[in-house]
Structures are given as structure tokens and as C-alpha cells.
Design brief:
By secondary structure, this protein is mainly alpha-helical. The chain contains 7 helices and 2 strands. Strands 1-2 form a two-stranded antiparallel sheet. A hairpin with a 5-residue loop joins strand 1 and strand 2. Helix 1 crosses helix 4 (76-84). It is elongated.
Length: 161
């Protein structure tokens, strides 16, 4: 599995907005220069984040973008789902095969008959479990948690000198 460059840029843009010492909005030109990406490409990404309520657009000559909610309330999962979509990562495409039927029959024979006639794909069950672990991990990491880690490392380097 690989996330798109758009997700990478979205996360970095949000970290930059969260790190802004000025606590003002940041213009698309400054953001695009900082991230090394074109303004038009970044504008499309920021538009998606705005539509989902993660950032707020500030109009005017000195306008730009700012976080629409506190950095500790913006999870990596929120951002990934906005940019990549909210579809299920794995779907069993082998449900009509002989192997699937044999595995399902064995599973149903061992299972108490709570769901008679339902044949569960055992491969999909494993993949769904992995997806849930990934989602939980991404929910636990926020824009603020990255900023905190960066601050901790910066202080550690200053104290070493």
C-alpha cells in the first residue's frame, strides 16, 4: 500500500500551519514555496482539506489558510481519508472460487451457527484486522503529536550543545 504525494503534501502543509509562530494564516505562495510544490497543485489539496473542515480559507489580500480546529484534533487518519478517500482497503475477490467455498464450509462447521449461510472470507478477515490496526495507529497520531516530537528533538539538540 502506498499513499499518494497529495497525502504527503497535505500532512506537511498542516504541520507547517500548526507550527506557524505568528498564528496567522499562511498564504498559498508561502506554503507552496516551503513544500516545494506548485501553487495550483497545492491549492487543489488545500481545497479538499477546506471542504472537509480541516483548514479554513481566510479571504483578502493578506489571506491564506489556517487550521480550522486545534492541531491535536486533526489525526493522520482524518487527512488520509480526505485525500485518499474512505474506501475499504481490501475486498475479497475470490468468494466464488472452490477454495473459498471449502474454507467457508470448514469455518462454518467449527463456528456456532450464529450466522447460518454466511460464508466469511478468512483472507479478508485477516486483512480487515490489519486495516483496523492501521486506522487505530493513524487515529492516535495527530498534527500536534508531530509538532510535539519535533519540539522535543529540537530542545534535545540545543541541550546537547
Amino acid at each position: 500500500m502506498q499513499f499518494s504525494k497529495s497525502t504527503d503534501y497535505a500532512l506537511h502543509a498542516l504541520i507547517h500551519l500548526g507550527h506557524s509562530e505568528r498564528r496567522n494564516n499562511i498564504g498559498i505562495k508561502e506554503l507552496s514555496t516551503t513544500l516545494g510544490v506548485s501553487e495550483s497543485y497545492l491549492s487543489k489539496i488545500m481545497s479538499k482539506l477546506r471542504q472537509d473542515g480541516i483548514v479554513r480559507a481566510v479571504p483578502g489580500a493578506n489571506g491564506g489558510y489556517e487550521l480550522a480546529r486545534p492541531a491535536e484534533q486533526i489525526t493522520f487518519l482524518d487527512v488520509i481519508q480526505v485525500i485518499e478517500g474512505r474506501q475499504q482497503m481490501f475486498e475479497c475477490s475470490n468468494s466464488k472460487s472452490q477454495q473459498h467455498r471449502l474454507l467457508a464450509e470448514e469455518g462454518n462447521a467449527q463456528q456456532d451457527q450464529k450466522h447460518p449461510g454466511k460464508s466469511e472470507c478468512l483472507v479478508e478477515k485477516v486483512m480487515d484486522g490489519a486495516e483496523q490496526h492501521l486506522y487505530q495507529y493513524l487515529r492516535e497520531h495527530t498534527i500536534q503529536s508531530v509538532l510535539d516530537e519535533a519540539f522535543k528533538r529540537c530542545n534535545h539538540e540545543v541541550n546537547k550543545k
